[in-house]
């Protein structure tokens, strides 16, 4: 299955062996009494307050601060089951992005106006002509960094709504990630693989495919620089059936 264009958790924190922490642990605090030889007298009483030491918790929280992204979904295809499937897919997709420290604000319809941070707009369509992006499940307009189109008739499994929701979630995550990363890149494993296998499709029903740690970094970097146009063509997500033709 040829994809177009994560996740093991990659949490940045300040380990106790890091240079910054190590300096605090090994250096004598300011004002500590010293011996006649000029060395810090660690046994002497001191009035040093606990507030004087670095707040590692706050440093960790700053580095792990959640990033947010607004995503609008518009789906006017007349499928009564799509609302529930879409809600389930959004829930799964949100959990996948949470592992990258990203919170998705899902909305419906079209934004009334664009703010300084551009939202991503996803159009779920059906009745896709066979020759239109043949075999693709979706594609992202990476160059302009906003629009994604999902071919729901190629994602939908009429007999398995749960499987449809899970696959839709992975399609959404894959294409949103391409928009955020803005590079022609795929990982060897996980949701950003260039080829999803039949085993991957089975696995994702039990546990979402993870992000590669590199994708986590690129996602966060892309969110920080949102607004600058990319220089890549659209990425397509191709169905497994298309690969067998």
How would you portray this structure in words?
This protein is α/β, with parallel strands linked by helices and 245 residues long. Helices cover 34% and strands 14% of the residues. The chain has 8 helices and 6 strands; from the N terminus they run ααβαββββααααβα. The protein has helices at residues 19-26, 56-63, 82-98, 152-155, 161-181, 198-206, 213-224, 240-243, and strands at residues 67-74, 102-108, 120-125, 136-140, 147-151, 235-238. It has a 6-stranded mixed β-sheet with strand order 2-1-3-5-4-6. The termini are close together.
Strand order of the largest sheet: 2-1-3-5-4-6
The helix/strand class is alpha/beta
Number of E strands: 6
Give the averaged pLDDT, no decimals: 74
Write down the CATH class of the largest domain.
Answer: Alpha Beta
- What is the count of DSSP helices, taking H or I runs of 4+ residues? 8
The CATH architecture of the largest domain would be 3-Layer(aba) Sandwich
Low-confidence segments: 1-32, 46-56, 58-63, 229-233
Assess the beta-strand content as a share of residues. 5-15%
Q: What's the alpha carbon Rg, rounded to whole Å? A: 24 Å
Terminal residue distance: 11 Å
CATH superfamily of the largest domain: Collagenase (Catalytic Domain)
List the helices and strands in order.
Answer: HHEHEEEEHHHHEH
Q: What can be said about the biggest beta sheet?
A: 6 strands, mixed
Q: What is the 3D form? A: globular
Binned, the helix content reads: 25-40%
- Can you tell me the CATH topology of the largest domain? Collagenase (Catalytic Domain)
Count of structural domains: 2
């Amino acid at each position: 299955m040829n994809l177009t264009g994560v996740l093991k958790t990659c949490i940045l924190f300040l380990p106790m062996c890091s240079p910054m922490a190590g300096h605090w642990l090994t250096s004598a605090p300011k004002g500590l009494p010293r011996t006649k030889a000029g060395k810090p007298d660690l046994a002497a009483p001191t009035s040093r307050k606990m507030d004087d030491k670095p707040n590692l918790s706050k440093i960790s929280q700053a580095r792990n601060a959640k990033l947010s992204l607004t995503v609008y979904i518009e789906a006017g295809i007349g499928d009564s089951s799509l609302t529930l499937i879409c809600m389930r897919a959004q829930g799964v997709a949100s959990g996948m992005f949470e592992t990258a420290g990203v919170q998705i604000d899902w909305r419906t319809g079209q934004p009334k106006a664009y703010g300084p941070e551009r939202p991503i707009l996803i159009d779920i369509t059906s009745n896709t002509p066979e020759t239109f992006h043949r075999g693709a499940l979706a594609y992202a307009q990476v160059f302009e960094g906003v629009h994604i189109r999902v071919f729901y008739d190629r994602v939908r499994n009429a007999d398995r709504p749960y499987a449809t929701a899970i696959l839709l979630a992975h399609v959404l995550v894959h294409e949103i990630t391409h928009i955020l990363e803005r590079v022609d890149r795929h990982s060897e494993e996980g949701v950003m693989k260039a080829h999803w296998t039949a085993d991957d499709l089975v696995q994702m029903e039990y546990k979402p495919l993870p992000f590669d740690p590199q994708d986590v970094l690129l996602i966060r970097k892309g969110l920080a620089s949102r607004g600058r146009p990319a220089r890549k063509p659209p990425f397509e997500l191709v169905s497994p059936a298309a690969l067998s033709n």
